[in-house]
């Protein structure tokens, strides 16, 4: 079954490549004919001799247009066809409430946990500029943040033991995901070497973590008038909400690719989570937490 | 410079600009919310001649714990007009920054022997309120030099409910329900759903006579927070749950004013040690096969003011060692070695005096008596065996006896 699947995948890939070449050739021919017609019109302009300035201007514009088309073709083999490639990069960001609530007084320390991504992608261009893009990305994104919070609603749960209330003090959070992300985007070739991408993505978490420590503060049990429980720096309390995280998330991604050579380039994109990382029945953290990650890296492809 | 290279540099610059923008966005926090807490932190009595009203001038200032709902001032009975005091007494308060406080009521309780002033605090964000009672109790002196036996049968119990919904047993002593305390409020923090008899300290139906108190060492489920067990305890004083999870020793405030000279303690007990002795090592528990659990009991009479006149209250960590202790009665191996869980054993411990008692100070509320039972001798340090059970009943405190009188009284008791 696996072999059949692999063979089909390889066959499909070869077909895409072959189709791509054919499409590229067709496209090149169509561009060449466009250039010829443009040149003809400019020759016509000289023959009429109506206005040298205008003629010259039209001629320049045409030349520029021609050059741009050439540039687009020079840097993009797949005009009006299929493209594919692979990218690797660093991911930086975190899981955060946005806007940051007043309960969070300061972020004292911030570091990355993981921060790598690798993606294979494929796109189809429907016009000179516009196309559709789909990718399959393995992302290991995470953060380790130390924040000072005030009246931050939280619970510590272990088995049938639970302490919940409002915490004031230091909070160290480690949040990370190993996930498969599938971006489905519109791709716009803004310049010969620049492509912009925008669209939604789905995120399927394979591994998820949201845990931390609280110390050097106190918890008001149940509500701000409840018993005060001191959590000293010597005996920090641990919490772990990993099981309360959602497995499927979605968000919006905005990215841009820049070609350094014809088949190699750099990219950057911003992933902005649209739903709460926690399940609906999770009440411990009262505000919506969303993942926001910025990635920077390199790609190879056509 | 190569055009391509320049564009790459430009791209990197733009990338960093985006990172900086994102970082700046993430690090900006909104304006600090107003405080939600509304605790009364201290009360100061404004009196022209405090010595006429209070036993000690330093008693004019009383610090209030976050877990307190009432503040009690013991005032001298007689010598001044209670009606006038009720009308004219003035107080200064400190509260959580931004919170406000208002007096809602001022009345007499207990047939006119107690002035009760009700207060209501409101948080800075105006969403939360707390209510407090300031009590001025005209105390009748219990000072006596006659031989007296004070008895506690542990017959009267009630329950206390926290705002979290947790409910536990409280041992009463006649009309003074604040005499005995337990650590149940600390256990209630993680174990809100526990039944009344699942708490470390509970009422026991089949006592030596009538009801008794049963103290059990229980696991809390929070070993990795440095709070692995709660040893059942019963003590004279108050329990402040504020430090229950980080410093259990500090949460037991031990002792009440006592105006007699205690000579001997007697009580009946049963005991069984839990199977596995565990010690707390950092935020973990380790089994220690070399140790077996045993119960603990200690009582001490101590001076409740230091040399500067400041209030002294003993806690779990200095309950046996504080320099203000003047007489002590500690349980030793000879007292607990024969205890079992089948039959009741009578335990008798005599007080050992470390210094002479100042009779005038004794009469003027200058001494406190602390008295503590625990199911695990090192439970205050979170070391012990889960399941260790100590049942105590029919406590007697012999006071003001001479040795001869005590011997004779004992013989009379046996007759």
Summarize the structure.
The complex is a heterodimer of chains A (302) and B (415). Helices cover 24% and strands 56% of the residues of chain A. Chain A is an alpha+beta fold and 302 residues long.
List keywords for this structure.
heterodimer, A: alpha+beta, eight-stranded antiparallel barrel, B: 415 residues, alpha+beta, eight-stranded antiparallel sheet, six-stranded antiparallel sheet, 28 strands
Describe the structure.
The complex is a heterodimer of chains A (302) and B (415). Chain A is of the alpha+beta class and 302 residues long. Chain A has helices at 2-48, 52-75, and strands at residues 82-97, 104-112, 116-125, 130-158, 161-191, 194-221, 228-231, 237-240, 248-261, 264-273, 289-301. An eight-stranded antiparallel beta barrel of chain A has the order 1-3-4-5-6-9-10-11. In chain A, strand 6 and strand 7 (228-231) form a beta hairpin. Chain A starts with a helix and ends with a strand. Chain B is an alpha+beta fold. Helices cover 16% and strands 39% of the residues of chain B. Chain B has helices spanning 3-27, 50-53, 82-88, 184-187, 248-251, 333-336, 359-363, 403-414, and strands spanning 40-46, 61-63, 70-76, 90-95, 100-109, 114-122, 129-139, 148-152, 157-161, 167-171, 180-181, 201-204, 212-216, 218-222, 227-230, 233-239, 252-254, 256-257, 262-272, 277-281, 284-287, 296-303, 325-330, 345-350, 352-353, 367-374, 384-385, 389-399. The longest helix of chain B is centred in the first third of the chain and has 25 residues, at 3-27. Chain B is globular, with a radius of gyration of 27 Å. Chain B starts with a helix and ends with a helix.
